[in-house]
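for the recovery benchmark. tokens below, seq after
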């Protein structure tokens, strides 16, 4: 078997627009967990992937719940909601990334996942009507 070395790109700490690319269920020393991989979409780092692990438990105090809430736009999640991770693939968000250094080098750590900023244009301020401009002070 021949395997090419995987090279991870580390970006500067900051807030980045991203989308959820994949979710994998894995087994670890402390039980099952979800490995969520996000793809950056900021123009300068398009396609760079950053992964974060979250316990496979889904409740209001868990990381997976908070990340899901952000991917769903930040609104409250109904008590009867059942998570289907496939439905989250491709959803936009903002990733708050930090840089950590270990003996193996630098890597990005996901500090938080936030709802994506609205892509709707901001409303423009309306000019004052001409009839209010009579030259008198307020």
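predicted aa per position
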């Amino acid at each position: 078997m021949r395997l090419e070395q995987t090279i991870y790109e580390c970006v500067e700490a900051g807030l980045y627009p991203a989308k959820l690319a994949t979710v994998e269920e894995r087994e670890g020393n402390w039980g099952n967990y979800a490995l969520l991989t996000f793809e950056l979409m900021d123009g300068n780092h398009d396609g760079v992937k950053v992964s974060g692990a979250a316990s496979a438990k889904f409740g209001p105090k868990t990381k997976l719940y908070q990340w899901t809430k952000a991917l769903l736009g930040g609104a409250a999640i109904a008590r009867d909601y059942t998570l289907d991770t496939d439905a989250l693939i491709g959803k936009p968000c903002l990733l708050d990334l930090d840089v950590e250094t270990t003996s193996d080098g630098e890597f990005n750590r996901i500090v938080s996942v936030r709802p994506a900023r609205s892509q709707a244009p901001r409303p423009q301020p309306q000019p004052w009507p001409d009839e209010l401009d009579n030259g008198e002070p307020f």
